[in-house]
Amino acid sequence: MSVQETLTRSRSKYERLIAAAQQVPPVPTIVVYPCDETSLRGAVDSVAARIIEPVLVGPENKIKDAASSHGLDISRFEIVDVAGSEEAATKGVELIHAAKGEMLMKGSLHTDELMHAVTAKAGGLRTNRRISHVFVMDVPAYADTLFVTDAAINIFPDLEAKRDIVQNAIDLYNAGFGKTPRVAILSAVETVTTKIPSTVDAAALCKMSDRGQITGGVLDGPLAFDNAIDVEAARIKGIKSEVAGRAQILVVPDLEAGNMLAKNLAYFAKADSAGIVLGARVPVVLTSRADTPRARMASCAVASLYAHARREKAPIMPA
């Protein structure tokens, strides 16, 4: 198969994901502070694709002016008028509590503003699970859709936080991508050493999986990045497992490592990356101004499938 054929086949991953989301009813979605072209277009495109039913929360005049300036038709959308971005985040969370939406979508406000409202001890959307972020990445050179977690929320997670980070990612995979994902717990090396604490955490997470403290996936670690995603690299190192060389979820040791890995994949490997926050009462779609329209729609599709599967208690796999 030629390089171009490989890229073309790989690039169908998000299309299959979006197509799967179109097979379920559009999800009521609270879009918080959509006051620029990027965030409004993401909502408009996702409505056109029959993925979401939006409620726009923010200053009504500013939202309408942005839509008019960029030729976006939002005449059919409900708008909840509030003064500023902080108020929009708070109101968005209130609307979730009022059962007006099953997912949140970030507009043009700062991520910290939205997550402050989501994680507030009083009136927020916390659960007994640690909140974490998953990049759902379409890497042209890799056969599977690749999850990278956590590269956006938890800076230096301890073992208990890592357990929730792993479980959140597994639950997302099982809701929208298939069953029993292969989970690689990454470090710099594939042997356990006290000199590198992340290797000890990796070994502990694998044992937690053995004892039923993490369920729904197959774990292996510590694994270096090469032997997590390349079969030949794993063979050379003598690593034999269901995960090595074929990982579908990459669990990074900390935010710094994860952020660099995700951006390397995006800029060197030309991967698209959808983003979703899990562990709250509803999935939260985090988009970036640098996201392509297809990546923004894929973020909505991921959250939609997850919200639907949680409602129906049945996995949905892209065709």
Instruction: From the alpha carbons, calculate the radius of gyration and give it in angstroms.
Output: 19 Å
What class do helices, strands and sheet pairing give?
Answer: alpha/beta
Tell me the number of structural domains. 2
Main sheet: strand order: 3-2-1-4-11-10-5-6-9-7-8
CATH topology of the largest domain: Rossmann fold
Average pLDDT, rounded to a whole number, is 90
Shape: globular
Largest sheet: 11 strands, mixed
The percent of residues in helical segments reads 40-55%
Instruction: Characterize the quaternary organization of these chains.
Output: single chain
How many DSSP helices?
12
CATH top-level class of the largest domain: Alpha Beta
The unreliable regions are 1-10, 314-319
Distance between the termini: 22 Å
Description:
It is built from twelve helices and eleven strands. By secondary structure, it is α/β, with parallel strands linked by helices. The chain folds into two domains: 166 residues, Rossmann fold (3-Layer(aba) Sandwich); 147 residues, 3-Layer(aba) Sandwich (Isopropylmalate Dehydrogenase). An eleven-stranded mixed beta sheet has the order 3-2-1-4-11-10-5-6-9-7-8, sandwiched between helices. Helix 2 packs across helix 12, helix 3 crosses helix 12 and helix 5 runs parallel beside helix 6. The radius of gyration is 19 Å and the shape is globular. 49% of the residues are buried.
